[in-house]
Amino acid sequence: MATRAQDQELVANAADEYGVTGQDVELANDTERWSKEHKMIPAFGWHPWFSHQMFDEVEYDGVSSLTPEQKIAHYQSVLTPKSEDRNALLALPDPRPFGHFLAQTRDYLTRYPLALIGEVGLDRSFRIPESWLPGQADERDDSLTPGGREGRKLSPYKVSLDHQRKVLFAQLRLAGEMQRAVSVHGVAAHGLVHDTLAETWKGHERKAPSKRARKRAEQQAFAGPSSPAADEDDNTTKPMPYPPRVCLHSFSGPAETVRQYTATTVPCEVYFSFSTTINAWTDQDSDRPRTGKVEAAVQQVPDDRILIESDLHTAGDRMDEYLEEIAKKICTVKGWEIEDGVRRLGKNWKRFVFGAA
């Protein structure tokens, strides 16, 4: 998944070499095996940690770059608390026009028909890192993708949620336009993430089913996933303003929030992914291993909407170990046998990524 300006093309290059193709998907459906060469699904997005590095051209008469004074004004408007340190603001990265990024993302999604949008979202807790001190940038590790924190201290400044929401909302609308799944990051902002997503499907909510329809759905539940059936006159090929599928990754919200997303009126398929690296699980060796907040959320998630992840920045044996660990954790909480659980999780992943039933 791409997160900022510096890694968009790197993800594209990796997809050219290792990306899963439509033919791979067809073969996997037939044989349940994946190509040894093609094992990657690219995703293109702008993470909230870097959202301050984006400016709205409309607010600056359509310019493609900002003057020093405009750069200062931009950062003073999107960072909180407001900084009067002009030199510090000028030392921050030159912000990029958001419209150019959206056009680039649209091109990538066209170029890679299986690509997702991500990682995007909202983060109420993070603070931007301090600027590089003189000489530090020249001594950085060139093997790392530029633009990360790389050990720098955190500043006292956060990106305003209004600005984060503007960046997120535009990417969600693009996901609707291109009918691509989205990976969403949310920290200390579960209600705001929900409200932002709900804004994209406002006016397109599904009608609450009648009692008779609910009973019929219960009787037929074994035949398909838990998402509501489309209306007979619903044109499912028509682009909508909301994403077709969303994954709330390393979900840390309460069970009540799960119920909001899985309400029958929600037209978007919302998935919930969990990890052992981020989520705060109850000690499984304790006397009450399934009573924590995360466990309660997992139990509330419909069986066909749960996903797993490593949330690790590198692939390899360590990542595989984390995936095995979280798969076992989910199976324990859900009460699934491990083989059945892994099969369910694999099916859920394919549906989230490819939209296949």
UniProtKB/TrEMBL annotation:
This is Cut9 interacting protein Scn1. It comes from the Eukaryota. InterPro entries: Metal_Hydrolase, Metallo-hydrolase/TatD-type, TatD-like. GO terms for molecular function: hydrolase activity, acting on ester bonds. Gene3D superfamilies: Metal-dependent hydrolases (3.20.20.140). SUPFAM superfamilies: Metallo-dependent hydrolases. Residues 133-157, 200-242 are annotated as: Disordered.
